[in-house]
Amino acid sequence: MTKPTALVTGATSGIGEATARILSPTHRLIICGRREDRLSKLATELSQATDVLTLSFDVRDKAAVDSALGKLPDEWASIALLINNAGNAHGLDHIHEASVDDWDAMIDINVKGLLYVTQVVLPEMVKSNHGHVINIGSIAGKEVYERGSVYCASKFAVDALTQGMRLDLNSHGIRVTSINPGLVETEFSIVRFKGDEDRAKSVYAGFQPLTAEDIADAIRYVALAPPHVTVTDMTILATAQASATKVNRRS
What's the pTM? Predict the structure, then answer.
């Protein structure tokens, strides 16, 4: 029996990469990202377990999204599982001191990029009355914190889009889920602080943060739930984290 096809954006690192690995026993994979060398390396690894197609594009570029996903080979065109993982935070500044370029990057990747990819993938799901969209949100889409207003706004938008998609797609039998991680130690903070590794490490100091594999495990659980079951919304925190801003740091 042919495995269902899963498409994972942002698969070159962190949660996306871990998700591709954990789904390889159960799904054929379309892995997407901007860094072709990392995609190729991951594809070589995962091809031992499943069929893999790599697509290198920037989700912010609608023309590139349309070109890559609108021209899939026939055997890859029917996507059963879409994981909208690509997303980033840029900067951690009070709103009156923040960079407009940072705002644009977060809104373009986290909101518009998610929409661009989803719009291309959904018609086949609608046609078949089957599919599952999993959007990777954040605790920042549930609680606003100081100096994170635009990042939080972008993740609140993901939460609203997830709820709206679920309503719009209900009559087509398509499941829609939001996975909302707290502090996960990946490249996230390195990107947010623009390569400042010491500052990035301080985010996770004094407690045990979540790992990309922790979130991937939750994604697998949700994706493999029986067809009549939809896990609509899942927030995942490290045990030491009680909210977006409260963390029990012991050192």
Answer: 0.96
